[in-house]
Amino acid sequence: MNRVAEVKMGGLEIITGDKSELKTFVGSCVAICLYDIYAKVASMAHIMLPKKLNEKKQTVEEERGKYADDALMHMMDGMIQLGADPKRIQAKMAGGAAIFSHESETGLFNVGPRNISAIKQILHENNIPLVSEDTGANFGRWVKFSLNSGEMTITSNLKKTEKII
Amino acid sequence: MLKYADNLQQLEQVLDSYIAAKTIPSLNVILEEPISYFLKKTQEITITNFDSLIPDSEKMNVMSAVYVKCSGDLHIGVLWYMLEKELKPLAKKLLPESHVNEFDKLAISSISEIGNILTASIVNAIDNDKGCKVWSSVPGFAIESLNTLLEVVMSDFGYHSDAVVVSAVEFRSLHSGIELQMLLIQDPNEVEKLVV
Description:
By secondary structure, chain A is an alpha+beta fold. Chain A has helices at residues 68-81, 103-106, 111-125; strands at 4-6, 12-15, 21-26, 30-36, 41-47, 90-95, 130-135, 141-146, 152-156, 161-164. Chain A is globular, with a radius of gyration of 15 Å. Chain B has a single domain (4-195), classed as Chemotaxis protein chec. In chain B, helix 1 (4-31) packs across helix 3 (105-130). The chains are: A alpha+beta, B alpha+beta.
């Protein structure tokens, strides 16, 4: 059985004992993980954008992780349904890079830093502690989260680095 | 009203005429050699399925890329990219020998300028032909995997649309064999502005 749940761009996955790992690749997007290590429930969203512009628009199943505000709500609800205790839920995140030069100067894209900022704000509002992060810089990252250890492993093929947070 | 599939076909023809009339002569002057091009495909994709644009084997290929975002009457993103290893032969053609030992700011700046000039050739053609006023951003430069580059571009469009229309074009210099790829990305709701 495949023990790894891959999260697509804009997607969201929640795992319990049947899977042991969540995995995605992010550039300017952010991989946010919420987890309750005691209940063995974890979720990962591949967040593309800070906020849904049209709040009335229905979220399709495959894009539950697209917007930060939407994604964190779905993650919390889904995890609680699977036995997580909201008071024990913690967060780790990675990504949010500014890939192209001049992003911050023009303000035209700058999606990565805006994603990071929005997620931190939502976590703060919901009293979810952000335990650790590997964000910013200008390179893409493979992100893996282990449900057993609660560790997030971040790998950059380009920089040839691996980091555990 | 035209059927959407017809619109995409017409869009491809319109782009083809702009590239032939404006972009190829510009690139020809920059590289000082004849250029061929191949308009590979124009298709609509949902943003979250952007990885369908590239074969799995190419997703992690490291590319040198320039992205120019255009706004105004039309919203267009133009991504120019080439294999990182081909950056040096291109830089050699643009810079005096003394400047190409390392990829200093001047080399990056000159390549960004190519992206800027070639994007301008398309934007000017749109203005002349359709009367649409479009302004280009400062070109952004990056060296990254194709997957990462596309993720940024798609996220940028994701604010306004769930889907994009992408036209893929390959340019090749006939003497030095330099290959340059272009992805022209549009909001599907704006395609009609170019095919009317």
